[in-house]
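Appendix B, Record 12. Input sequence as logged:
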Amino acid sequence: MSKKILMAASILGALAVAVGAFGAHSLKDILTENGRTDTFKTAVEYHFYHALALLFLGVLMRTKYPNSTIFTFSAYAWFLGILLFSGSLYTLSVLNIPSLGMVTPFGGTFFILGWLLLFLGIKKAG
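Logged structural output:
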């Protein structure tokens, strides 16, 4: 499982850089017009933070805890967090549909859950 997490982290990290660059250059006018430049930036930042967290987790699992179910659930939570939190903010920023903001807190909840699962996994590992 750690290899899949590391591969996902690599792709998600690359996507965070690509989406950030695309937003800064190709979407600049739309984001400015929609007043969503800061929203888009927040989406990219949280996307990238959690891609790095997944990378850390993949390395931890590969080197110390290869069969940790709790760490696997942490990875899934962060992946869903990126999808829901950053994904909803990306879409909101470009399409300017305020109701999409209702999805964002669910993504944030998955981010928190991922961090708490990491804590519990470390505690359990001793």
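The mean pLDDT is 95.
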